Amino acid sequence: MSIWLFLFGIFASTYMGLFVTYNTTGIDESMNELLDQDVYSYFKNVKYFKMSDKQGRYHLDAAEVSQNLTTNVLILTEPSGVLINDYQSQPMYYDAYTGVINVNKKYLSLRGNVILRDPNIRIESDSMTYSDNSQMVNFQGNAKSSSKNFDAAYEIEVGADNLSYNLSNELVRYDGNVKGKVSRTRAYEDDIKFEANSIVVDKSKRNANLSGNVKFLKSQLVASARNGEIYLDNYNKKLKYYALYDDVVIEETVSPKGQPPFKRKAFSERLEGFMAEEKIVLLGLPRVYQKKDLLRGNTIVLRRDIETIEVDDANTNFKIR
């Protein structure tokens, strides 16, 4: 199935023109020379469509279309259409200021206030390209997406310089100045913000991999590392919801009940965050600086707004206040 077959039908409501681009050298110019030139058709208020089993499967609306009949390339003004393929359960709708379709190469390019959307995701950018052969959608410039998962009660918003979306395996990659937020629909559940150089989100597995200058921001905690992960389905489970790897640094404001707040700082090679239990587990030579104390161990557990620290030194377990 392909969007490129909507050229089986064309409606033009107001005006249609046909012209050729060649220099006339005389009425004796041969037919072969004429056929070597580019031939164009021009349409206004256009609807492209393809019929399959007497049903419209694809369509594209545009204010103006200039079609090169030689190369089968169309130049679009104010395109608004639908992408349908064998991998997506829902059609994806797009809008833009201008666009180009290469029918032979099955390639679509859009520019200017580009929007691609379906019931679960909305993506905006300065420009977009789509290849029907590779099933890749690439967004360039001020890319931002918003996607919802109603079963797990969360919404993800991400902004980046560039974004690529593989429709066949539902992998979404963000590159350059990536910033985002996972928002919970329940008011009492904490949101989590994140930053990275690049992020790959697997929509089918519902997880995200972050790399390069990774930072997590949650409540009064800021954690940074080289790499990280988010497991989107584990928010209310006794499983890690997020993890950081390589040169982990934590800065936290602790506000114990009935006591003045204080700063806590920690370092480790690995961090695992458990949202349901409101705890952080530090692994890999962790150390914690709290007030005037320095704590070390194989595993250290920190809990939100609780001064007590749990330390496992491999020989004995103990708690320090």
Question: What does this molecule look like?
Answer:
Strands 4-5-8-9-7-6 form a 6-stranded antiparallel β-barrel. Strand 4 (about 55-70) and strand 5 form a beta hairpin. It has a domain at about 135-320: lipopolysaccharide transport protein A fold (Sandwich), CATH 2.60.450. Residues about 1-30 and about 50-55 have low confidence and may be disordered. The protein has one helix at about 30-35, and strands at about 10, 15-20, 40-50, 55-70, 75, 80-85, 90-95, 100, 105-115, 120-130, 135-150, 155-165, 170-185, 190-200, 205-220, 220-230, 240-255, 260-275, 280-285, 285-290, 295, 300-305, 310, 315-320. By secondary structure, it is mainly β. The protein is about 0% helix and about 65% strand.
Keywords:
disordered N terminus; lipopolysaccharide transport protein A fold; 321 residues; mainly beta; six-stranded antiparallel β-barrel; 2% helix
Number of strands: 24
Look at the structure and give the mean pLDDT.
82
Low-confidence stretches: 1-28, 51-57
With strands numbered from the N-terminus, the spatial order across the biggest sheet is: 4-5-8-9-7-6
Beta-strand residue fraction: over 45%
Report the CATH superfamily of the domain at 135-320: Lipopolysaccharide (LPS) transport protein A like domain
Radius of gyration based on Cα positions = 28 Å
- Bulk shape: elongated
Instruction: From the 3D structure, determine the CATH topology of the domain at 135-320.
Output: lipopolysaccharide transport protein A fold
The CATH architecture of the domain at 135-320 comes to Sandwich
CATH class assignment of the domain at 135-320: Mainly Beta
- Largest β-sheet summary: 6 strands, antiparallel, barrel
User: How many DSSP helices?
Assistant: 1
Multimeric status of the protein = single chain
Fraction of helical residues: under 10%
Query: What's the end-to-end separation, in Å?
Result: 64 Å
- Determine the structural class based on helices, strands and strand pairing: mainly beta
Helix/strand order: EEHEEEEEEEEEEEEEEEEEEEEEE
